[in-house]
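Hi W., the magnesium ion complex you wanted:
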Amino acid sequence: TAHTTIDPAAGDIVTPATRAAPVVLRVTRLSKSYGDTPVLHDINLDVRRAETLCLIGPSGSGKSTLLKCLNLLEKPQAGEIRLGETCLTAPHADVDAARARIGMVFQHFNLFPHMSVERNVTVALTSVKGMDREQARALARRHLDEVGLAAFAGQRPGRLSGGQQQRVAIARALAMEPELMLFDEATSALDPELVKDVLAVMRDLASGGMTMAVVTHEMGFAREAADRVAFMCDGRIAEIGTPDRIFERADHPRLRQFLSQVL
Ligand code: ADP
Ligand code: MG
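Structure:
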């Protein structure tokens, strides 16, 4: 549209909603191989404060690998990742400190089964952040309330539905007060009737100003909640733009083909 400009630093579409916001995450010329197999090629990407970026694309296109590189669970062979002023890919970067600034929610939520819901949320606060137990409990209650589960604080995770457990995992990530939240198919392992409560929490976060990069197959969520949508294909960002541009005016043949299969 007339209001869309190209950001020369990132080769990236910037919408009016996000143009003025500072860059939280900047990925520059990122490449990643597993052994001899290249999986990500020369990725450039910015995520600005309070922006929700959805990553869509076929299975095997490199979406999970990209998120893992962002969280330093995988090491890229080339390129740079900056979180605010910190270069995460610098040789002596403090990986643990960087990870504490990024919340990650996976398909499988991996709650500790023998701990209460509340303790699942507080354990990293007391052990990693060194917070005292009462302060951690107050923070846990606040974030459990945010995901609609304050009443379940004393229960074991096994008593909760999959959707509720995933919301606990979200609360656990939020309690660390991350600058950026990454979601990798957070609803893909859930029974269909449990998906909508998790998506509702993610929508609330997006509209509440959280900065998020969300890998999802939920095209309705991407269309409604994303500020921008990136279409990944063969390890590249093949298209990036507003949901309107991606969903209504797709011109990339692989994107059109992908959308015709999933919509
Ligand atoms: P997506 O999340 O889009 O489905 P992935 O990032 O999981 O894609 O995978 C991208 C490519 O990398 C695929 O070809 C996949 O088989 C390969 N791959 C993913 N993880 C590994 C790994 N740990 N070792 C080797 N190859 C991998
Ligand atoms: Mg994946």
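Residues 34, 39, 57, 59-65 surround adenosine-5'-diphosphate (ligand 1) (CB under 6 Å).

W.
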